[in-house]
Amino acid sequence: MRVTIHQPEHMPWPGFFHKINMADTYVVLDNVQYRRRYFQNRNKIRTADGWQWVTVPLEKETRDRLLIKDARIWKENLKWKSKNLESIYHNYRKAEYFIYYWNGFESIYNRDYFYLADFNLALLKFFFEKLKIRCEVRRASEMDISGRKGDLIFNICRALKAKKYISGISGKEYLNLKDFKKVGIGVVFQEFHHPVYKQLHKPFIACMSIIDLLFNYGDRSLNIIRGKGGVPLMEEVIL
């Protein structure tokens, strides 16, 4: 049983899916504090001029001291979906595999969601399906497990009877590895070398949303994420 735990980000970058693909179970960490100006309600897409944010607007009270699971989409803003979809369509419609994914992606994006986490998770499951990533998905908020930071991660792993925990590199800063060792849980720290693949525009810009890779490479995308897709990798580790 290999477990990984991560916040439900909005259309994450390829490194997110690299970590999920290493695990048997992905726990959606939606019972921790929402982080402003990060990737929970936005991500980057490639444009002819560089890159731009695609953002999901949230109600004002969501901005401080709320858990991710309680973050609510701003319902009074009626134009954000059409604006985001228009930006994505305009910038990717000429991508080789765009036509194979657009209708399904657009359908999910146009559905009515009240909570940001539900919206993000629906998109994540769509990407898992298209990338052929097979893993169990659990929500931390439904597991009745308490703790903060490293203790919460440890408690989730114990509850799931994990044999290995797949952690991002930043886990070295807050995980108590002795606790994991005492109960026989191995900790593996992810090292993701970003692939340098062909985008619609030059030069290559790393750390775009997964849609940038998926629309350009289709069913080859997971192999490319895993470093087996026949494209070069960046020398440094991208965290």
Q: What do these coordinates show?
A:
The chain is an alpha/beta fold and 239 residues long. It has one domain (2-225). It is built from eight helices and seven strands, in the order βαβββαααβαβαβαα. The chain has helices spanning 14-21, 80-92, 98-109, 116-131, 149-159, 177-182, 210-217, 221-225; strands at 2-6, 25-28, 42-47, 50-55, 136-139, 164-167, 186-189. The strands form two sheets. The protein has a five-stranded parallel β-sheet, with helices on both faces. A two-stranded antiparallel sheet has the order 3-4. Strand 3 and strand 4 (50-55) form a beta hairpin.
Helix-strand pattern: EHEEEHHHEHEHEHH
Which class do the helix and strand fractions yield? alpha/beta
First-residue to last-residue Cα separation: 24 Å
Strand content is: 5-15%
| Radius of gyration (Å) | 18 Å
* Low-pLDDT stretches: none
Biggest sheet statistics: 5 strands, parallel
Tally of extended strands?
7
Mean pLDDT across all residues, rounded?
Answer: 94
Give the neighbour order of strands across the main sheet: 5-2-1-6-7
